[in-house]
Specification:
Elements: E1 7-10, E2 20-24, H1 54-63, E3 69-72, E4 94-95, E5 98-99, H2 108-130, E6 134-141, E7 156-159, H3 165-176, E8 181-183, H4 194-199, E9 207-213, H5 220-240
Helix pairs in contact: 1-5, 3-5
């Protein structure tokens, strides 16, 4: 966390209205002082605690591609910013078969007040100031879950709820790159789309929720490659919606 805030913003001082704005809800595995999750510390580098590779992609989009970025600085195990306030998983007690004992009986209202609400209030204020043409939410997904033997073949996927305008353009453009692209896979945006439902769909702003398979971006080279591809494809999509 920076100055006690559950987010950081990069490249936002001189925003040109009408461009892209990037959001990374699950970019951190940080656990603030005073919170004990009660899990093996090795799990904090696992996908249950952080979207592996996303922070590097988001920072490159800001610093090398001149895009404003809003990045979470608290682990999803502390408070999941990509959940609604009234969802039980906003402070998860289990994740991919792992019990999170420190969250059982946790003070959920405190976590919402300290982390969830400031994160989303700051994002809303940034959107109002930036007036973006399109929002881009960047996530990553594990090639396989511990609770399932099913392999996930998609290198990238686009998630959406009701507004699929931008997602369908992006799916086409990623496929033109020779990639295996998921259409509302491995998760459906019709069930899990909280941040974009709140900040994009509710405001009529086109958006792309991009899920990149973690083995694509678990190195600096992979993160740089995907930042270049995202900047190009998302910029092209924004011109079409």
């Amino acid at each position: 966390m920076i100055d006690g805030r559950p987010y950081r913003q990069v490249n936002v001082d001189d925003i040109r209205p009408g461009g892209l704005l990037v959001v990374a809800d699950h970019a951190s595995n940080h656990v603030p002082a005073g919170i004990e999750l009660g899990i093996d510390s090795r799990l904090m580098n696992d996908h249950i605690a952080i979207d592996i590779g996303v922070e590097g992609v988001a920072d490159r989009l800001a610093r090398r591609h001149d895009l404003p970025v809003h990045i979470a600085t608290v682990s999803r195990l502390v408070c999941d910013f990509h959940r609604k306030e009234d969802e039980p998983a906003v402070v998860p007690t289990t994740s991919d078969g792992h019990l999170i004992p420190g969250n059982i009986g946790a003070d959920v209202e405190m976590r919402l007040a300290h982390y969830h609400r400031p994160y989303h209030d700051a994002l809303a204020a940034l959107i109002e100031r930036a007036r973006p043409r399109m929002l881009v939410a960047v996530h990553s997904f594990t090639p396989s879950l511990a609770t399932s033997d099913e392999e996930r073949p998609w290198e990238v996927a686009l998630l959406y709820n009701q507004d699929e305008r931008a997602a369908q353009h992006a799916i086409r453009l990623f496929r033109e790159q020779g990639l295996t692209v998921g259409d509302n896979q491995p998760y459906s945006g019709k069930q899990l789309n909280a941040t974009m439902d709140r900040h994009a769909e509710a405001n009529g702003i086109p958006y792309c929720t991009v899920e990149i398979r973690q083995d694509q971006i678990n190195t600096a080279a992979g993160q740089a490659r995907w930042a270049v591809m995202l900047a190009d494809i998302m910029g092209r999509v924004a011109l079409e919606v």
